[in-house]
Amino acid sequence: MQLGMVGLGRMGGNMTVRLIRHGHEVVAYARSAEGLERAASFGAKPTRSLADLVAGLESPRVVWVMVPSGDATESVIQEVAGALQEGDLVIDGGNSRWTESKRRAADLAARGIGWLDCGTSGGVWGLENGYCLMVGGEADAFARAEPLFEALAPEGGYAHVGPAGAGHFVKMVHNGIEYGLLAAYGEGFEILRASEYELDLPKVAGIWQYGSVVRSWLLELLVNAYQEDPGLERVRGYVEDSGEGRWTVEAAIEESVPAFTTAAALFLRFMSRQDESYAAKVIAALRQQFGGHAVKGVETPGSAEAVPGGEA
Q1: Which of 3, 5, 132, 232 could form a disulfide with 62 if both were Cys (CB 3.0 to 4.6 A apart)?
Q2: Which strands form 45-46's sheet, in the order they lie side by side?
Q3: Closest CA to 117 of 79, 175, 154, 171
């Protein structure tokens, strides 16, 4: 099957290679010359513009977009759609907000262009292991593109989950769950590290891979990280978020779903970016005011002892 791939970064580049390995023909475009050269080395046909990419595809065309969510995705889809014709199909495999996917599907449908939003999970390991694909859109569009999903996913690793927006909604919640799992592992290993025991954390992580109820692929990746850097000394505790966690919490609020773990994990990421917490400074100052509790780093009369009967 022939398709155009827009975006050849860590995900799009490896997906292109996997598709070619499974016999598909890929016409590729990216702003990065390095990405284009790598794709071409595996057999993709490189192009110099989105217009050239569309022109290089046989009708009816399929264009798969793998660029960062937000303005970048919007710009690419609008430019591509302007060059496509009725009967062509656009697939957004990035992490777009599901509401944007619903809007884009409606906009393209008015021009007779099909739409699929494909939530994609697998990271840098997807090239060899395959990607988990959660696809939203019309059933006939899904059936048309299914050979691509079969090539990209491991057996049983893809599904048509609902109408336009459903694919990105499911992927959003998937990532919200991931936030909670990562936070739980992080907190657990910090408790182990802070304990009175001199624990070999790489060894603990290693044995938990076998028979433990908390074993998972994430734990395997933690073992890999410990093997590369046993003390995690080369890693700064600064954690970004790419949007899905925020959107999951917003969806939970809209649906009145109590999502304590996901919300806490999201705020934990915000906290990781602070050199010093101003909120904690306020709390420390208040505890000193009402209870006479010690304030770290500030010399004040009587600060070393709490006032008898003071609050905690």
Answers
A1: 3
A2: 45-46, 25-29, 2-6, 62-65, 89-92, 114-121, 132-137, 158-162
A3: 171
Model confidence, pTM: 0.89
Residue 81 and residue 90 in contact, taking contact as beta carbons nearer than 8 Å: yes
Q: Which residue has the higher pLDDT, 99 or 304?
A: 99
- Provide the 8-state DSSP code for 97: -
In the prediction, which pLDDT does 300 show?
A: 47
CA-based torsion, 104, 108, 109, 113: positive or negative: negative
Residue 158's nearest CA partner among 103, 91, 60, 73 is 91
Neighbours of 75 (CB within 10 A): 12
User: Quick check: is 102 catalytic?
Assistant: no
- Would you state the pLDDT for residue 310? 52
% of the chain residues with pLDDT over 90: 82
Strands 62-65 and 2-6: parallel
Which residues touch 138 (CB under 8 Å, ≥6 apart)? 114, 115, 116, 163, 164
Closest CA to 287 of 276, 275, 300: 300
What tens digit of pLDDT does each residue of 253-262 get? 999 999 999 9
CA-only gyration radius of the chain, Å: 24
202-238 pLDDT tens trace:
999 999 999 999 999 999 999 999 999 999 999 888 8
- Residues 6+ positions from 151 with CB-CB distance below 8 Å: 18, 19, 22, 23, 24
Give the ranges where the chain is alpha helix by DSSP (H). 10-21, 33-41, 50-55, 71-83, 98-109, 126-129, 139-152, 166-194, 201-207, 217-228, 244-254, 260-272, 278-291
Q: Based on the residue annotation, tell me whether 171 is a catalytic residue of this protein.
A: yes
Asked if 283 contacts 210 with a C-beta cutoff of 8 angstroms, the reply is no
